[in-house]
Design brief:
With about 140 residues, this protein is mainly alpha-helical. It contains two helices and no strands. The longest helix has about 60 residues.
């Protein structure tokens, strides 16, 4: 009778471990998916930053060329400086967003690592439970 109760308890524990393992596996998959999305967004921001730097360089060359010219060129420079200021403001916002994304990425990475550790613990407990079950004559 005690052996039967131990077997029933073991079965319940193994089922619980299997459910927890499934939940953790789903959580890991979701976190890995989020990590891929964050990496793609970071790559996108890097490309935008490169485009901005190329534009800024061109703008600086245009300003340099225009510095010795007449009032018509003065208008051109003024218009492009406004555009440059707009891009600088946008770039600041993008850099802030990038910083936020990097912090979020670090949080996701930490959470993923913690979940993997929990999963490893559950796997060890599951193996121990299987061994106990076999040693107790159940398998």
């Amino acid at each position: 009778r005690e052996m039967g109760q131990m077997y029933d308890d073991l079965v319940v524990r193994v089922e619980t471990l299997a459910e927890e393992n499934g939940e953790l596996t789903s959580k890991i998959e979701a976190l890995e998916h989020n990590e891929v999305q964050y990496k793609q967004q970071l790559q996108h921001y890097e490309m935008i930053k490169e485009d901005y730097e190329a534009l800024q360089s061109s703008m600086e060359e245009a300003v340099s060329l225009a510095s010795g010219m007449t009032s018509q060129m003065s208008k051109f420079v003024k218009q492009h400086n406004i555009t440059k200021q707009d891009y600088e403001r946008k770039m600041e916002l993008l850099n802030e967003e990038l910083d936020t994304m990097e912090l979020a990425m670090e949080d996701v990475t930490r959470e993923l690592e913690a979940t993997r550790e929990e999963n490893d613990i559950l796997r060890r407990e599951f193996r121990d439970a299987e061994c106990f079950y076999r040693l107790s004559g159940g398998g």
